[in-house]
Write a structure and sequence with these properties.
Number of helices: 13
Oligomer: single chain
Structural class: alpha/beta
Helix content: 55-70%
Length: about 300
């Protein structure tokens, strides 16, 4: 008997209502029944099917390739990737998927040059439908952000183009993570950038991924002193702190900030990512901070912390 409303389904699958509707209408992934007031109701089996589809699209499968598979066929695929559900590094990279990614990124760059934020949002929606929410972030949005930064540094796009793209991403992520609610018993995570690190998009993406994974995220914005980060972590009884470092990595105060943060939080896991973090890997190891070389490692790291195996 159908019993799950769309709010429960979005919370348990991580899929937005918009993605659910497109998967139903365009791909016939499920066919929920309707109430007299036209509300969707999903059965337990439909909910499990959507969970499987969400995981597989996050692993790299295009929804068009798997939407019509039977539940048993979906389970076969899930078992095939049992060892990579938490570690997306083994996600299948099909030529079709690669071409789709390149197409989305190319269109997003063009929308950036045209300063068309509405078009950019539409492209992100389409990528989310094709790859799932995690796939959107990992396979499209992160490479897109890196390319925007590169084009800006090389003078191919203006500062206003780069700022408009960053604002569009922040607004999009703020809007699309609203369905990912967490309970009061969920672990708490602080996300920010250290003092002097003004580029926050990496931190915004990390916060979005953590919310999707069910964490209670407190996002503090960019460029916070170590003492303020530590104070927030203690106040929120945070299970971990996530930092994004982009540039400049030669900031003479950065290592001092990281060292003070570790002294203030001697037992709290501190995760550090971003394209500037690799240059600081030896120092991060000395500070007993976990360096992540890619956004894909972030989910795995959160799972380990949550299960106390960090």
């Amino acid at each position: 008997m159908p019993k799950h409303g769309i709010k429960i389904v979005t919370q348990q699958t991580g899929l937005s209502p918009h993605v659910l509707r497109v998967w139903e209408k365009r791909y016939q992934a499920v066919t929920p029944m309707r109430t007299d007031t036209n509300r969707r109701l999903y059965t337990d089996s439909e909910l499990q099917r959507l969970k499987a589809l969400a995981i597989l699209t996050g692993l790299g499968y295009a929804i068009g390739q798997i939407a019509r598979l039977s539940c048993s066929e979906l389970q076969v695929l899930l078992r095939k990737h049992d060892n990579s559900i938490n570690d997306r590094s083994e996600a299948p990279a099909t030529d079709l998927g690669d071409e789709q990614e390149k197409g989305f990124i190319s269109r997003a760059i063009q929308a950036t040059k045209e300063m068309d934020q509405a078009k950019l949002e539409t492209i992100f929606d389409e990528a989310s439908i094709a790859f799932g929410y995690s796939g959107l972030l990992e396979r499209v949005m992160v490479p897109f952000i890196k390319l925007v930064g590169q084009l800006w540094q090389e003078g191919h796009i203006s500062s206003s183009d780069e700022h408009a793209a960053s604002c569009a991403i922040r607004e999009y992520l703020a809007h699309t993570t609203r369905p990912f609610t967490s309970s009061t018993s969920s672990p708490s995570l602080i996300v920010t950038t250290p003092s002097g690190q003004l580029h926050e998009i990496g931190a915004v993406i990390a916060a979005s991924l953590a919310r999707k994974a069910g964490w209670n995220v407190t996002y503090l914005g960019a460029s916070l002193p170590a003492e303020e980060i530590a104070s927030a972590a203690i106040k929120r009884q945070a299970k971990a702190v996530a930092l994004s470092i982009v540039y400049p990595v030669d900031d003479p105060h950065l290592l001092g900030e990281l060292g003070r943060l570790r002294r203030h939080l001697p037992n709290t896991p501190i995760i550090v990512g971003g394209q500037g973090a690799a240059a600081l890997a030896p120092q991060l190891s000395e500070f007993k901070m976990k360096h992540l070389s890619s956004i894909r490692e972030f989910n795995t790291c959160l799972c380990k912390i949550r299960s106390c195996s960090f």
